[in-house]
Amino acid sequence: MAQRTPLFDAHLAANGKIVDFAGWEMPINYGSQIKEHEAVRGDAGMFDVSHMTAVDVRGERATEFFQKLIGNDVAKLGFEGKALYSGMLNEAGGVIDDLIVYKTSWGYRVVVNAGTTDKDLAWMAPIAASFHVELTPRRDLAMIAVQGPNAIAKAQAARPDAAELIAGLQVFQGLPMGDWFFARTGYTGEDGLEISMPAAEAIPFWNALIAAGVAPAGLGARDTLRLEAGMNLYGNEMDDNTSPLAAGMGWTIAWEPASRDFVGRSVVEKEKAARAAGGALLKQVGLVYEGKGVLRGHMKVVAESGEGEITSGTFSPSLQVSIAMARVPLAVKVGDTVQVDVRGTLQPARVVKMPFVRNGKKVYE
Amino acid sequence: MSTHIPSDLKYVASHEWLRVEADGSVTVGITDHAQSLLGDVVFVEVPKVGAQLAADEQAGVVESVKSASDVYAPIAGEILAVNESLADATESVNTDPYGAGWFFKIKPANPADLDGLMDAAAYGKEIGA
């Protein structure tokens, strides 16, 4: 039985086209995915992300817990509210999920993906027990992402009593206000907020955001925006069998201190050495394609040094060309041309450094 | 959301519509239901003028932001004309699927092939409209 978020009725009211996403009935668009994409790049749009799960973490040894659990190091979080992005790895060095951890007054809050929530909680439970840490999944909360160059101002207009708190947030910082939590994070490459709140308050806030001129945007626009921003999608760019180093997540691993024994460390450390030695491994790059058709996930990529695969591809509404994220042989370099099997014929695509778009502008060469 | 199914057209299960013109040629496009499932169309490939296609043979591709779909010849025949404007104005497939968003005109190899196709009521039933 598909689950519904507290905003389901608001999606119907906004003519949302509902599809099944990871067991949730979610809006794919509200008419035009491209217009919603443009609203986020040029003004302000909002996404229901209530299907994602916030988990509060409490306990004297919560820091040690995270230092074991994830590849990045929460010791980097220097002040209350500061957040970091990380992979949570298994013993084989595969990615169980990607997540954001916030340092909070009570310990930490971690936000995980919808489709992986049950798996994540099952994985975390024994590790939490060994550090005597308490995990509280906050299924009582709804979450709305407000994104775009005017997102902060419009969110402040919709919630004037929180305007000061919002104004004080640094990028990648989140702070609570009562049962609400305002975080300056997102998945679009634009400035904006991810705001969680008690489920019963979600629809009034959604309507206040509409009144402030924020456009509802669906999962379709969310995908083209994150792809332009060069951000990974769990299940496409990485999964339980994919190394973070093959998924462009090397930067999320805190190798120092060398004594920190996070799960999967020994495996990814060996792989890192093999990469430095030029082993037959894959890495993540961006592709730009100006020919006929559109790059899609699972298309084969052929380079001089071997084969790879597109992990996500789409038509970029901001750039008006097709873009993709791909895993290709290590020897492939930015500026190279590779061949992509586009519906049966090999077509040339250019290798670029991601992201493709940041703050409304093209950023690759 | 309601879908538009004009009563003067014929339909096939792969979501193409057919309009029999006064000169006996047949104009083909994709239905309102099909464009709605695809979402914003960003690329269309049409067949070559003069191509001889069998019924159900691939006649082109329509790609939206979301996915790619083949377009099929609903009946056998020769391609008489294609909608060149779809090279730039792909959005007309979404905004005017039965008008400016047409794909190609085909000369039926056997006009009797049209008789077996669905009418609006049958197509409406087919898609659960």
UniProtKB/TrEMBL annotation, chain A:
Its EC number is 2.1.2.10. The keyword Transferase applies. Residues 7-256 form the GCVT N-terminal domain. It catalyses: N(6)-[(R)-S(8)-aminomethyldihydrolipoyl]-L-lysyl-[protein] + (6S)-5,6,7,8-tetrahydrofolate = N(6)-[(R)-dihydrolipoyl]-L-lysyl-[protein] + (6R)-5,10-methylene-5,6,7,8-tetrahydrofolate + NH4(+). InterPro entries: GcvT (IPR006223), GcvT/YgfZ/DmdA (IPR028896), GcvT/YgfZ_C (IPR029043), GcvT_bac (IPR022903), GcvT_C (IPR013977), GCVT_N (IPR006222), TrmE/GcvT-like (IPR027266). PANTHER family: AMINOMETHYLTRANSFERASE, AMINOMETHYLTRANSFERASE, MITOCHONDRIAL. This is Aminomethyltransferase. The lineage of its organism: Bacteria, Pseudomonadati, Pseudomonadota, Betaproteobacteria, Neisseriales.
From TrEMBL, chain B:
CDD domains: GCS_H (cd06848). The keyword Signal does not apply. It holds the Pfam family GCV_H. It comes from the Bacteria. Its cofactor is (R)-lipoate. Keywords: Lipoyl. The keyword 4Fe-4S does not apply. Binds 1 lipoyl cofactor covalently. Residues 25-107 form the Lipoyl-binding domain. The modification N6-lipoyllysine is found at residue 66. Belongs to the GcvH family. The glycine cleavage system is composed of four proteins: P, T, L and H. The glycine cleavage system catalyzes the degradation of glycine. The H protein shuttles the methylamine group of glycine from the P protein to the T protein. This is Glycine cleavage system H protein. The lineage of its organism: Bacteria, Pseudomonadati, Pseudomonadota, Betaproteobacteria, Neisseriales. The gene is gcvH.
